[in-house]
Specification:
Elements: H1 2-25, H2 30-55, H3 60-86, H4 104-110
Helix pairs in contact: 1-2, 2-3
Length: about 140
């Protein structure tokens, strides 16, 4: 239990510092600030429920709530990561935005030239050919 608490407190501190950085770096950009705020609030609730779970002797309702908020915290972290991936930090050069191969949404955000409605196309793949098995040649001994 002690290792869980120690890890929880260190992640709590790191999470709050991360949310504070997001609030400074993405000021005025609600598409990132909303999931960051949700993440921060769920982080506070998660620690509170963890403390209450220990104080109530691992009461079933508290423990279940702690698990549920943990799942919501994971979902909000994924939501935040996706939003941060799609919207670079203001002032960051656009060519440093990570782009998944063939992702038309991020490709349009990244490419400053050309119409935004025109996604780039991927090279066409050749049809896969069945591999022919070669029989080993007999060895004359």
């Amino acid at each position: 239990h002690f290792a869980h608490r120690l890890g929880g407190y260190s992640l709590f501190a790191a999470g709050l510092l991360f949310v504070a950085w997001i609030w400074r770096a993405y000021a005025g950009r609600p598409r990132v600030l909303v999931p960051a705020t949700a993440f921060g609030l769920l982080l506070i609730v998660q620690v509170g429920l963890g403390v209450m779970t220990v104080m109530t002797g691992e009461h079933a309702l508290m423990a279940t709530s702690h698990q549920t908020v943990g799942a919501l915290l994971l979902a909000s972290a994924m939501w935040l990561a996706i939003r941060m991936h799609l919207l670079p930090v203001p002032g960051q050069r656009e060519d440093h935005v990570p782009v998944a191969a063939g992702d038309a949404t991020t490709e349009r955000l990244r490419t400053p030239r050309g119409p935004a409605s025109e996604p780039t196309s991927l090279p066409k793949r050749r049809p896969e050919r069945a591999l022919e098995r070669r029989r080993p040649e007999p060895v004359n001994a």
